[in-house]
Write a structure and sequence with these properties.
Structural class of chain A: alpha/beta
Shape of chain B: globular
Number of strands of chain B: 2
Strand order of the largest sheet of chain A: 8-7-9-10-11-14-15
Distance between the termini of chain B: 39 Å
Radius of gyration of chain B: 19 Å
Helix content of chain A: 40-55%
Strand order of the largest sheet of chain B: 1-2
Largest sheet of chain B: 2 strands, antiparallel
Number of strands of chain A: 15
Distance between the termini of chain A: 62 Å
Order of helices and strands of chain B: HHHHEEHHHHHHH
Helix content of chain B: over 70%
Largest interface: A-B, 48 and 57 residues
CATH superfamily of the largest domain in chain A: Response regulator
CATH class of the largest domain in chain A: Alpha Beta
Shape of chain A: globular
Order of helices and strands of chain A: HEHEEHEHEHEHEHEHEHEHEHHHEEEE
CATH architecture of the largest domain in chain A: 3-Layer(aba) Sandwich
Number of domains of chain A: 2
Number of helices of chain B: 11
Oligomer: heterodimer
């Protein structure tokens, strides 16, 4: 027989409920000075949570640096930066609601886009409706920009700018690579990259012997990898996120799969992939939109790439990757546009963004007519001796392409 | 040769699935509680193995001995202090409670361990063995052996010990067990503790194989759910049969239909079983 004590149960349930509830937070700026509010909808909880952390760190670093320098100068007056964060729980429809709420209720002046291409495309409709400039830090698919919205800008070039230089490099350095196997996570960005890879491989006369996608949350790839092994490709190209790629790399080792070239996107761009994969990361090639080894001398708040990397490392004790950098550069670009416009008028700031042509720590920034950046040359790199080494573009090359992944 | 390799892969993976599912199956079978915190327990066990190896140099084999008693106590206390209060309520109430507990544990893990993926890399690596061109990774073999040993121990416990007989008695007929003098609440707590201990041990073994992150808990829970339905609830050998069946279907499906359809196929199988054989492969009618 049970003897429930409702008082106790109610107390427990109430405290559990309170503990479980996540709320939107505001990073406080200074209270006395006037502020400019930037809305940043992020997937703080749910499967995309690690990505939200990266973007948040980038925005926070920018806000901190901008405020340290006294704030943003608008017509001779200094304004503090305040970033308004809200959690859309890795749920794209909710990112749209969150964006609208930020514009109408939180009264933000400018917006950052939510994570990834899908959510950025969805939320940009709202920014367009209210005529609020929105900078998307992590949206690469050209479908995001084909709506020709006036107020949406993005700092990632189209996906083919990653795969084309990779294929060119492999063609030039590894003449015996004839057969390619492509394995992609069944998700917007990884699938788009894989499709570009397939196009690029075929255009360069390579035979695509395997091209399949795996489901999100796949726990085991042994059957797939056994099949790939039986086809003996010289180039294995895999897309996915850190967990997928770590697991696939581990299982490739388990099954003693060897290939001349193994490319993984996007894992190796992240330090946690390199740390977790250990020796098995050796000679894996990849490409991303930015790399800490780049050497740009920018006109933005951060100045040089080296200075950005130093500030980031000082604050977070880790090496920044392209997601951190893209978020920070979005803040820096908005700041430049606002200062140049000399006004908080959204249309004026939008016009400044549209005609922007400037070098930043991120690289040269110029937006195309559709809002997507078209001035950037994304680097190709390879893990050598536990460190990423840039192979392309020539101007920032750090080493030679090495063949053989065991 | 590919067919044999895929078959061996599936057998090994099936034992790992059984290891993931067995604690979940025990709790569902005995307590009629769908324990949604099970996946997070596995992840917590994986972090325990990772932390013990990373910081104290304790090998995962010894970490099993730490995980089993500590997770038993954790599970026992959870059942005693929280779940026993609502155990007689409709299944939705306990489901909601374990859902809430899972949210708390999972978010606490994201907070403390961050959502980054980590990997336990043994030094020196265990490598793979090759028999007639069929390759089996040693860590999976060891995990499979441990999973089978744990399953056998649980089987012995349920069959031979007094507590085990009491657990089986409560599972078969709660009211009759009460009349025979079995302290049902205590048996519930022991069964939940055992379930948690098995989850913790599964986590330690999975740490050798899969990347570790709080975000993987739902994948473990999903597998446990399917394996239980396929194998039969509360049945020790059923979890093993369900695990192997699921791994076989996924393996063959991914080779012949493509990896994207392997998961779809496993859930189609789940629906077919729910319609045609709701008691599972080795479950008995009336316990579905």
């Amino acid at each position: 027989m049970l003897h429930p004590r409702p008082g106790f149960s109610a107390r427990v349930s109430a405290s559990l409920f309170l503990a479980a509830v996540a709320v939107g937070t505001v990073v406080p700026g200074a209270s006395a000075q006037e502020v400019i509010r930037f809305g940043a909808p992020l997937p703080i909880t749910g499967p995309l949570a690690p990505e939200a952390v990266k973007q948040q760190q980038g925005y926070d670093l920018w806000a901190e640096q901008a405020n340290k320098a006294g704030g943003i100068t608008v017509g001779g007056k200094k304004y503090k930066v305040e970033i308004v964060y809200a959690d859309y729980q890795s749920n794209t429809p909710r990112s749209v609601q969150t964006t609208e709420q930020m514009i109408t209720q939180d009264k933000v002046n400018f917006m950052f886009g939510p994570f990834g291409s899908g959510a950025a495309k969805a939320a940009s409709t709202i920014a367009e409706k209210y005529k609020v400039p929105m900078l998307a830090a992590t949206a690469s698919s050209s479908q995001v920009y084909d709506q020709n919205y006036k107020y949406l800008f993005g700092t990632f070039t189209p996906n083919d700018t990653l795969t084309t230089p990779l294929t060119n490099l492999v063609k030039a350095k590894a003449a015996d690579v004839k057969k390619v196997a492509i394995l992609a996570r069944n998700d917007l960005f990884p699938l788009a990259i894989a499709q570009e890879m397939e196009k690029s491989a075929k255009a360069n006369g390579l035979e695509v012997v395997y091209s399949e996608k795996y489901a999100i949350n796949t726990l085991d790839h042994s059957a797939t990898l056994s099949q790939i092994k039986s086809l003996a490709p010289q180039w294995i190209f895999v897309t996915g996120y850190t967990n997928d790629l770590l697991l696939i790399r581990k299982q490739m080792g388990d099954q003693q799969i060897k290939a001349g070239v193994v490319t993984m996107i996007a894992g190796p761009a992240y330090q946690e992939f390199i740390d977790s994969a250990g020796a098995s990361a050796e000679n894996i090639s990849s490409a991303s939109w930015w790399h800490p080894a780049e050497q740009y001398d920018g006109k933005d708040l951060f100045g040089s790439t080296a200075n950005f990397v130093k500030l980031f490392k000082d604050k977070y004790k880790l090496e920044p990757d392209y997601a951190h950098a893209s978020a920070a550069v979005c803040g820096a670009l908005l700041q430049m546009a606002i200062e140049k416009a000399g006004s908080l008028d959204r249309d004026k700031v939008r016009d400044e963004l549209a005609k922007m042509d400037v070098v930043t720590f991120w690289g040269p920034v110029k937006f195309g007519g559709n809002g997507q950046i078209n001035s950037l040359e994304p680097p190709v790199f390879q893990i050598q001796g536990g460190k990423p080494v840039v192979l392309f573009p020539e101007a920032i090359k750090q080493g030679e392409f090495k063949l053989g992944v065991n | 040769m590919l067919a044999i390799q895929v078959l061996i892969n599936a057998l090994v993976l099936g034992c790992l699935y059984a290891c993931i599912a067995i604690g979940f199956s025990l709790v569902w079978g005995v307590l009629n509680v769908i324990n949604l915190i099970h996946g997070s327990f596995i992840v917590l066990g994986a972090y325990l193995a990772w932390g013990a190896y990373q910081w104290a140099g304790i090998s995962p084999w010894y970490a099993l001995m730490i995980a089993a008693p500590s997770f038993f106590i954790l599970g026992y206390l959870l059942q005693r202090l929280l779940l026993n209060r609502v155990i007689t309520a409709p299944v939705l109430v306990t489901l909601t409670l374990t859902f809430g507990l899972d949210l708390i544990l999972n978010n606490a893990m994201i907070y403390y361990f961050k959502a980054d993926y980590r990997k336990l890399i043994l030094s020196p690596p265990t490598g793979s063995v090759s028999i007639f061109d069929v390759i089996v990774p040693v860590d999976r073999l060891i995990a499979t052996g441990s999973a089978l040993a744990l399953t056998f121990l649980l089987y012995l416990l349920l069959r031979r010990s007094k507590v085990g007989r009491a657990i089986v008695a409560v599972r078969l007929d709660r009211d009759a067990a009460v009349l025979m003098g079995v302290d049902v609440k205590s048996i519930y707590a022991i069964a939940f503790g055992l379930g948690a201990a098995l989850a913790g041990c599964a986590g330690v073994l999975m740490a050798l194989i899969f990347p570790i992150s709080p975000l993987t808990s739902s994948a473990y829970l999903g597998k446990a759910f399917v394996v239980c339905v396929l194998g039969g609830l509360g049945s020790v050998s059923g979890a093993l049969a369900g695990g192997i069946l699921l791994a076989l279907v996924e393996g063959i499906g991914s080779v012949y239909l493509g990896p994207a359809h392997a998961v779809t196929l496993s859930f189609v199988l789940l629906i077919v079983f729910l319609i045609v054989r709701p008691q599972g492969l080795l479950g008995r009618k009336g316990f579905e």
